[in-house]
Amino acid sequence: MRKDRLGRGRSVLNRAGYFCGDRAHPAVELRLRPPAGDPTAWQASTESFRDALTRDFPDAFLESNASALRDVPVVVLDFEIEVSPDVFVAGTAAMPAPDYAHVSLVDVTAHTAALFARWLRDSYVASPSSVRFLSSFVMENGDETPWSLPATGDATEMATVLLSHLAAAEPERR
Prior knowledge:
alpha+beta
C-alpha cells in the first residue's frame, strides 16, 4: 500500500497503479482555472506550463496532443508528475489563448490534488488568489459554481477546502 505525503494510506489503485481513492477519500476529476471575471489572471500558456513542470518535476511525463476544445482544435499538454514520493498526479492542461486556461486532474483524492494545487498556486500562477476549482462530483449534481482555493496555507489547508467542496455532493457519492 502506498501512502501520500499526508500519511494517509490508500489501498485502491487504478490500472496504472496510482491512487484512485476509496469510499472515505473518493477519487474525482478536478478542474482548476482562473476566475471567470479575470481569465487572464494566470498569464498562462501551454509552453510556460510545460517549462514550469519540467523545471519543478524533472522526471515528469509530458506529451502534447491535439484536442477539440469548444469545437476548435487546440494543443493540450497531458502530464504525469510525482508530487510527493510515490504520489502521482495525471492531468491535462489546456491553455490555447491568454484569456482561457484550465488544468484537469484525473483520479485524484482531495489530499493528492491539494499537493498539486499548492504547487500551481505557489510556483506557477501570477496571483495566489487566482485559482478556482470544481470537481466532477459536484458538477454531476448540476452545480457549476467554482470554489476558490485559499491564497495562503499548506496542502493540508487546501485539502480541507477540497473536502468541503466534495461534501456538497450527494451523500452516497462520498
